[in-house]
Amino acid sequence: MKDTVILALESSCDETACALVRNGNEILSSKVASQIDVHTLYGGVVPEVASRIHIENISIIIKEALEEAKMGVEDVDAIAVTVGPGLIGSLHVGVLAAKTLALAYHKPLVPVQHLTGHIYANAFVDKLQFPLLALVVSGGHTELVLMKEDYDFKVIGTTQDDAVGEAYDKVARVLGLGYPGGPIIDKMAKEGTPRYPLPRIHTDEPLDFSFSGLKSAVMQSIRRLERNGEELNVADMCASFQETALKVLWSRVSLALQQYDVRQLILAGGVAANSRLREITEQEMKKYPDKTCIIPPIKYCTDNAAMIGASGYIAYKKGIFAELDIEANSSLEM
Ligand code: KG4
Ligand code: ZN
Q1: What DSSP string runs through 293-315?
Q2: pTM over cut 0.90
């Protein structure tokens, strides 16, 4: 069978990325220009700044990805791009670059929804086995997705307020730990004991999530310590927050695994890089010897373009193409 090479672009948040992916599961090159250093100065992503830096970086990153793969745009079969969801100004930059390449080189344009990219990052590890359950945990989303086959996405649980990654970032900010909070809390929690009691927030729908109350509970707990003149142990608070958040996540996953007869569990999104979530998942999955589990390599958990190439490959095979007048959509659903 003839190989299919996808040139993929991702610019939905604060990473400008380009990758070349062969047959949906082989990375020929993957380049990511992170803006974290800049946004750290502001304690979070500043949308206007993000889109401006994307403009500066996008051509350079495309050139680097092509060079590393030793290919030209003429050698690829299609251009895939993240169309949404994300920051609208940031998305525009990637979409415009992709449209330009598609027009200039007469290549089909494949629109990719960002979260499907996170899901298909797992294809770099192993073949997906359907039906599967995906736990999608990122800075903007917390979703349980049931997939009966490729590109069939059914959201069976979602967050009612903050995403889990957002909760990590906000709690880190309250603790004065910097941005992005996830990796810092992950590291600090290893040195702490989860000794501060925090509530597991109830949701009306048993498979839904809620994290804003947990963030507030952390703040209240800190205030209480201050009032009582007790010293806050930051590492212990990180461990307490993390254990509670991950317990909430896994309680929903366990329930979904009981309710739906799936063959596989996969993790997806930036929070899937969390060492404790990876550990708990491996432990918990021992209870399900009939099911397989994939956890993507850490560098393909956070935003990158290789995952967009993996998802774009499936879309390409399914004949999902966009016209050149397609626009970025900041709230695009799966
Ligand atoms: O998927 P992603 O790169 O971007 C979005 O699509 O949102 O996810 C970013 C989120 C941030 O909230 C970040 O704090 C979180 O993923 N994150 C982590 C870890 N690494 C990144 N959260 C917990 N533990 C980590 N090791
Ligand atoms: Zn993402």
Answers
A1: EE---GGGTSS-SHHHHHHHHHH
A2: yes
